Amino acid sequence: MAATLIAGSGSPLPVQQRPAGSTRTDLQRHDLNIPGHEVLQARVDFAPGASFPRHKHPGEEIIYVIGGTIEYEVAGKPVVVKAGDVLFVADGVIHSARNIGSEPAAELATYVLRKGEPLTTFTE
């Protein structure tokens, strides 16, 4: 998978290894006026039945489901969202995602992150 050029920044983002059936397309990344923080916006696509394992982020994740139906586990509790729904995942909260539909699913993920930390830390 190749790095994607980010609109407005002109610099490539590193690409993280993803499980089969899911892809992340980074759309933009910018420094914020909040010292030590940045925003990353990405489209995440899931093939039918595909999942992304338990993980956390160094900041908040704001999710808008573009299409399909995705079941998230957030802090151990299931949450099902479909096209047009939104979900907020707080800083450091362990969560996972799985396309429970028979069609592809997609989300627009906006992350407000602490700079210099890995986007995703996988957990057990």
UniProtKB/TrEMBL annotation:
Please give the SUPFAM superfamilies that the UniProt record associates with this protein. Answer: RmlC-like cupins (SSF51182)
Pfam families for the chain: Cupin_2 (PF07883)
Q: Which InterPro entries does this one have?
A: Cupin_2, RmlC-like_jellyroll, RmlC_Cupin_sf
Segments for region (Disordered): 1-27
List, for all copies, the residue spans of the domain called Cupin type-2: 43-108
Say which domain of life the source belongs to: Bacteria
Q: Which CDD domains match?
A: cupin_BLL4011-like
Q: What is this protein called?
A: Cupin domain-containing protein
Q: Which organism is it from?
A: Sphingomonas brevis
